[in-house]
From TrEMBL:
Membrane-topology annotation of the record: Multi-pass membrane protein
Subcellular location: Cell membrane
Residues of the HMA domain: 17-83
GO BP term, example: copper ion homeostasis
Predominant subcellular localization, coarse grouping: membrane
Keywords from the named record: ATP-binding, Cell membrane, Ion transport, Membrane, Metal-binding, Nucleotide-binding, Translocase, Transmembrane, Transmembrane helix, Transport
Transmembrane segments: 115-134, 146-168, 180-203, 215-234, 367-390
Domain of life: Eukaryota
Listed InterPro entries: ATPase_P-typ_TM_dom_sf, ATPase_P-typ_transduc_dom_A_sf, ATPase_P-type_domA, Heavy-metal-associated_CS, HMA_dom, HMA_dom_sf, P_typ_ATPase
Name of this chain's protein: HMA domain-containing protein
GO CC annotations on file: plasma membrane
């Protein structure tokens, strides 16, 4: 009876699970910090770390309280996207992981092309606006402000649209980031300049001889958007290279395997090989899965695994590893480790974990990003109020902006 009571009182310990999810839509370290805070507040999640450089979130969770789909839903509710593996009965976990990497690569390419288009529009249209604004009267003609408005409008409304969308998403979640600063700065400059162009009498400053022209700041909005997009373009290109190592490792895996089933040799996708299958490997072929040699002998190039340039002799009873290259003879092996349990899959997992680990400087950047935006906004508000109160009555609003 006492043993039964003890058994009842001892809580069952649930094994913790970990998952790594590619995140899309992050634009700065503050985004990664915000996702971390949102995830760490969820019941069932013991720890969450988001690496902005690699665009991945590593989450440890209790499977009884949380699952991957709910984690993804939490991230999406915060205003970001998640690339999830599409697991079905016909698709193994290793194939799904490869599909995720393909989807991430497609997302990187699409992001790069989108930023490139926006940057080209911003650069082409902002240059003439900058020339007009910096001419300081050397270039002057009726309707010059209207021309600047027409040139800057596509830059703000098209090239800068992502900044305003991200800033609004952050605002809805009671947060602020780099997009908030860009949206407020360029939005204020463009809005004021547009009103000053369409209704100049609202801001015209009278002088002794004639009314001074109303200053406009279209070039500030256009150039800021163009320069930030240039930075994002370079960043998107660099991000695409961070997953090259993983893609190259996955590319080493054989695509098909020749197995013996029902007395017949069948060529099947390597993802369909099961533990215990007998696999035939011929000269010049990549070994599809980890296993033990049943019969035959050969020399196997294991340089991708061990770095050893000389082939290693393999006979019955020896262990062989997937993605290594069979050189000379033919042999049969019995599959012992397939999919995520293979040596190659473990190497890929270690590379992913190494990339997902945050360096101390990255953690410092997360801390700084959390206070940088509020501090800048506070300074901007104080500056506006000070100029509006202490500035000349005729120009105080313009100078405050």
């Amino acid at each position: 009876m006492e043993n039964e009571m003890n058994t009842t009182l001892i809580p069952e310990v649930t094994a913790e699970e970990r998952c790594e999810l590619p995140i899309t839509g992050m634009t700065c370290s503050a985004c990664a910090s915000r996702i971390e805070r949102v995830l760490n507040r969820q019941p069932g999640i013991s720890s969450a770390s988001v690496n902005y450089a690699t665009g991945r979130a590593t989450v440890a969770f209790d499977p009884e309280q949380m699952d991957v789909n709910r984690i993804a839903e939490t991230v999406e509710n915060a205003g970001y996207g998640v690339v999830l593996p599409k697991l079905t009965e016909e698709v193994s976990s290793s194939t799904a992981e490869s599909d995720v990497e393909d989807e991430v690569e497609k997302a990187h390419v699409a992001e790069y092309r989108d930023v490139l288009r926006r940057f080209l529009v911003a650069a082409v249209l902002s240059v003439p606006v900058l020339v007009l604004a910096m001419s300081h009267g050397r270039i002057d003609f009726p309707g010059m402000n209207a021309v600047q408005l027409l040139l800057t409008a596509p830059v703000v409304l098209y090239s800068g649209a992502s900044f305003y969308k991200s800033a609004w998403a952050a605002f809805r979640h009671r947060a602020a980031d780099m997009n908030t600063l860009i949206a407020i700065g360029t939005g204020a400059a463009f809005t004021y300049s547009t009103v000053a162009t369409l209704f100049p009498f609202l801001f015209t400053v009278p002088s002794v001889h004639h009314a001074m022209p109303t200053p406009v700041y279209f070039e500030a909005a256009g150039v800021i958007i163009a320069l930030v997009l240039l930075g994002r373009l370079l960043e998107a290109r660099a991000k695409g290279k961070t997953s090259d190592a993983i893609r190259r490792l996955m590319g080493l895996q054989a695509k098909t395997a020749r197995v013996v089933r029902g007395g017949q040799e069948l060529d099947i996708p390597v993802a369909e090989v099961m533990t215990g299958d007998v696999v035939i490997v011929r000269p010049g072929e990549k070994i599809p899965v980890d296993g033990i040699v049943l019969q035959g002998a050969s020399a196997v190039d294991e340089s991708m695994l061990t770095g050893e340039s000389l082939p290693v002799e393999k006979t019955a009873g020896n262990e062989v590893f997937g993605a290594t290259l069979n050189k000379t003879g033919s042999f049969q092996l019995r599959a012992t480790k397939v999919g995520k349990d293979s040596a190659l899959a473990q190497i890929v997992r270690m590379v992913q974990e190494a990339q997902g680990h945050k360096a101390p400087i990255a953690r410092l950047a997360d801390v700084v990003s959390g206070i940088f935006t509020p501090v800048v906004l506070a300074i901007a508000v104080v500056t506006f109020v000070a100029w509006y109160i202490l500035g000349p009555a005729e120009t105080r609003f313009t100078m405050a902006l």
